[in-house]
Design brief:
Length: 265
């Protein structure tokens, strides 16, 4: 049986013997195998679980629009990158703790050293977030954030071939039908673990567009720990049911979505 997420805690059983007979006491049984968990992994520094999917995602204070404003005001295009015509998207990953702090920021896909350093500095200066919630309790959650650098206008919306805006951030972001719980269930039920991996763990960060009708297109792997996971990750996203589309000023809009898919037997 294949599982998306494996429990990393180990339950150890101790058996005491009070036998006074001279016969040899049999050794205690080996500990049982760890049970499997739907989501999360331990933080080795605190022992607390860090979630990938939760019932309520962490949120920047004021929401997505406020976060876009924060990024626009605080991120400045590095001079060397501008002079050399360097553009692109930086993908950053961090943890929003149960207290709302942003910690362990890493660049999982960079553009150039000066741009990457700029993003790191701005993310480190973020105010406290509203933490993610699971079963009514605040928990630590992984979060992946793309930051776009364009010489035609920092943080400006992109446009498709027909001239329609493709938003990076919208007032209401795209959502899998049924929310995070159903997304987690979809991935668990439909994942086919690539045999070529030798059962190794891995992760794929996906980027795609959710259209006004909820359909998904332009699916690509923004970052992967091992390219052997790419084909299955792309298949999972392409076969998804229609999403709840993004909204901007009350109107349905085309918007980028990002998704981290973990491969764990």
């Amino acid at each position: 049986m294949k599982h998306l997420i494996c429990l990393l805690a180990i339950l150890v059983c101790h058996q005491l013997s009070l036998q006074s007979q001279t016969t040899e006491v049999p050794p205690p049984p080996p500990p049982p195998p760890p049970p499997h968990m739907i989501d999360g992994e331990p933080d080795t520094s605190s022992g607390k679980k860090i979630y990938t999917f939760v019932e309520q995602q962490p949120e920047f204070p004021g929401g997505q629009k406020a976060m876009m404003t924060y990024l626009s005001k605080n991120i400045h295009y590095p001079r060397d990158a501008r002079d050399n015509g360097i553009e692109g998207k930086v993908f950053a990953k961090f943890i929003v703790t149960e207290t709302g702090n942003v910690e362990k920021i890493t660049i999982i896909r960079g553009v150039c050293p000066s741009i990457d350093s700029t993003v790191l500095a701005v993310l480190k200066g973020m105010p406290k977030w509203e933490p993610g919630m699971q079963s009514g309790e605040p928990v630590s959650v992984y979060y992946t954030l793309p930051v776009h650098f364009s010489l035609e206008g920092d943080q400006s919306p992109e446009k498709d071939s027909a001239g329609n805006i493709i938003y990076l951030y919208a007032t209401e972001m795209p959502e899998f039908p049924g929310g995070e719980k159903e997304l987690k269930k979809y991935l668990k039920d439909n994942m086919q673990y690539p045999e070529a991996t030798g059962k190794k763990k891995g992760v794929a960060y996906m980027k795609f567009i959710v259209h006004e009708n909820g359909s998904v297109s332009d699916v690509e792997v923004a970052y992967t720990s091992n390219s052997v996971f790419n084909e299955e990750a792309i298949r999972l996203v392409k076969n998804m049911p229609a999403w709840k589309p993004a909204k901007e000023n009350g109107n349905l809009v085309k918007c980028y979505a990002n998704l981290m898919i973990e491969f764990k037997e």
